[in-house]
Amino acid sequence: MDYKLDHIGIAVRNLEESINFYENILGAKLIDRYRSESKGVESEIATMEINGNRTELLSPTNNTTSPIARFLKQKGKGVHHIAYYVNDLDEALEDLKHKGIRTLEETLRINQHGRRLIYLNPADTEGTIIEYCDYPNQENKIE
């Protein structure tokens, strides 16, 4: 199985201030911004890009049910997850199963941009939240 870093998710308290920092201090470009009110997501997301590398800034839209709100309460702002692109998410999930790595099944979804994703169980990843994702309708396979 081949992996490529897709993006890093950062939990933030103030999305506007965070966008401003990334644009004015780091020279990032805001390439996408959207809200997801899907159950288990409840976040506003700003995708920033620096030299082809992406960071997702994640801000909760519901302070009682958003996993980002829970993360901020428990750990504070900062790195929330690391996402790895795989050529075929179904194949990657079979590989994980054979290796005894669990996923958080309820997180399996397709976002509004066609990215299929799932989170691995942090109990099996040394506590790091890891996302696996693919883009089944796009041509960006790992070479």
Automatic annotation (TrEMBL):
Principal EC category: isomerase
This protein's record includes keyword RNA-binding: no
Top-level division of the source organism's lineage: Bacteria
Stretches assigned to the VOC domain: 4-135
Record keyword Metal-binding present: yes
UniProt entry keywords in alphabetical sequence: Isomerase, Metal-binding
Matching InterPro entries: Glyas_Bleomycin-R_OHBP_Dase, MeMalonyl-CoA_epimerase, MMCE/EMCE_epimerase, VOC_core
Cross-referenced Gene3D superfamilies: 2,3-Dihydroxybiphenyl 1,2-Dioxygenase, domain 1
Record-listed E.C. numbers: 5.1.99.1
Pfam families for this protein: Glyoxalase_4 (PF13669)
GO molecular function, one term: methylmalonyl-CoA epimerase activity
Protein family per UniProt: Belongs to the methylmalonyl-CoA epimerase family.
Protein name: Methylmalonyl-CoA/ethylmalonyl-CoA epimerase
